[in-house]
Amino acid sequence: MMKKLKHMILSFLGLMLIWVLLTSWDLQEIYAGLIVSALIVLLSLGMEPVLGDVKLTPKALVFGLWYIFVFLKELLVSNLDVARRVVNPKLPIKPGIVKVKTTLHSNIGKTILANSITLTPGTLTVDIKDEYLYIHWIEIKHDDLEGATKDIVQKFEKYLEVIFG
Amino acid sequence: MELAGAIITLIGSIFLFLGALGLLRMPDIFNRMQAGTKATTLGSILFLAGTALAHAECTCIGKIVILILFIIFTNPLSSHALARAAHHIGIPLAKKTVKDDLAKDEKKNKNSQTGEGE
Amino acid sequence: MVNIIYQIAGAIALAAILLTFVRMIKGPTAADRVVALDAMTIISISLIIFLAATLQRVIYIDIAMVYGLISFVGVVAIARYLERGI
């Protein structure tokens, strides 16, 4: 029940933020946005409360903000990496699909983790089965599960664990 | 301010170009996806941010912010769906590929299931 | 000066679209073509914003948003179809 309430409040706030960004700071439009957001939240009551797993402690908020910076840095590094590989005439790749293990339990945490992995250097999530992620790695550095997990997953996991649990 | 926006836009367009070049040069679909997803994501983010910076007086900045967030969230999702589908229908990997854990595990699953059935 | 840099950026993005188009024609499998299409849409969104800025038409931004939404749904739908169908 608590989870559902949290999901409702968070999705309402998110929808309201999107509405304000889409329109302007006009009083009438904000009223319309309140009605529309409330309607969407009520209509989606039957769905699974995915946002209910988000933790709202101060530590989680700080980690969430810090996570954005970590993510942007990794995105930049990954792009320079791709650029380096593409421009090189010899095309230095050694691809393969490796299996890694995650300790995250919530669905939204796994989703964000998979998305982050896709946007970071040389990795692309191919499939998720329970707690194992299958990742296409453009240059395999570790052959075993532990090494790959340490290299790919853990730099995000320590933040996501605090935010989503 | 406008000059900074234009330069950021230029960097973004270079990333877009490199992504497209990678799409053309890479040997198999997964490697193409790697180049196609990452480079176009950052490229378009920089392109849009540069444009927004050059026209900072416009009231439409909010819409561009939403567009950037939308690209960050949906681009990896769609490439993930495609990668899954491509692996599922068995598109061959490039010759350079070293290992494939997913195919191995799927085979194992299939064997154990048929084993139980008999 | 600013305008020239901005237009060069647009031209490079246009060249990128041409490259993805080549992959779309060449692509040996359907999935390759969809990957090219996906990249092409993202680049087109950037180009639509570029047009909106150069032609001073704010309304084009809405077109870019709707285009992005529809292309995302379309790519996911094609991916699901490929997974089950063939």
How are the SSEs ordered, and which strands pair?
The complex is a heterotrimer of chains A (165), B (118) and C (86).
Chain A lengths: L1 H21 L4 H17 L14 H30 L8 E6 L5 H12 L4 E7 L2 E6 L7 H8 L1 H11 L1
Antiparallel strand pairs in A: 1-3, 2-3
Chain B lengths: L1 H24 L3 H26 L6 H28 L12 H17 L1
Helix pairs in contact in B: 1-2, 2-3
Chain C lengths: L1 H25 L3 H26 L4 H25 L2
In a nutshell, what does this entry contain?
The complex is a heterotrimer of chains A (165), B (118) and C (86). Chain B is an all-alpha fold and 118 residues long.
Textual characterization of the structure:
The complex is a heterotrimer of chains A (165), B (118) and C (86). Chain A is mainly α. Helices cover 60% and strands 12% of the residues of chain A. In chain A, strands 1-3-2 form a 3-stranded antiparallel beta sheet. In chain A, a hairpin with a 2-residue loop joins β2 and β3. Chain B has one domain. Chain B has 4 helices and no strands. In chain B, α2 runs antiparallel to α3. Helix content of chain C is 88%, strand content 0%. The model of chain C has no long low-confidence stretch (mean pLDDT 87). Chains in contact: A-B, B-C. Chains B and C meet through α1, α2 and α3 of B and α1, α2 and α3 of C.
Features:
heterotrimer; A: 165 residues; mainly alpha; 2 domains; three-stranded antiparallel β-sheet; 6 helices; B: 118 residues; 0% strand
Fraction of residues of chain B in helices?
over 70%
Strand content of chain B: under 5%
User: How many beta-strand elements of chain B?
Assistant: 0
Total discrete domains of chain B = 1
Share of β-strand residues of chain A:
5-15%
Q: The biggest beta sheet of chain A, please? A: 3 strands, antiparallel
Mean pLDDT across every amino acid position of chain A: 82
Strand order of the largest sheet of chain A: 1-3-2
Cα-atom radius of gyration of chain A: 19 Å
List the chains of the largest interface with their residue counts: B-C, 53 and 47 residues
What sort of overall outline of chain B do the alpha carbons produce when their principal axes are compared? elongated
Largest sheet of chain B: none
Please write the string of helix (H) and strand (E) elements of chain A.
HHHEHEEHH
What is the helix fraction of residues of chain A, given as a range?
55-70%
Count of helical stretches of chain A: 6
Structural class of chain B: mainly alpha
Runs of chain B with pLDDT <50, length 5+?
none
Mean pLDDT of chain B: 81
Count every helix of chain B, treating DSSP H or I runs of 4 or more residues as helices: 4
Order of helices and strands of chain B: HHHH
Care to count the β-strands of chain A?
3
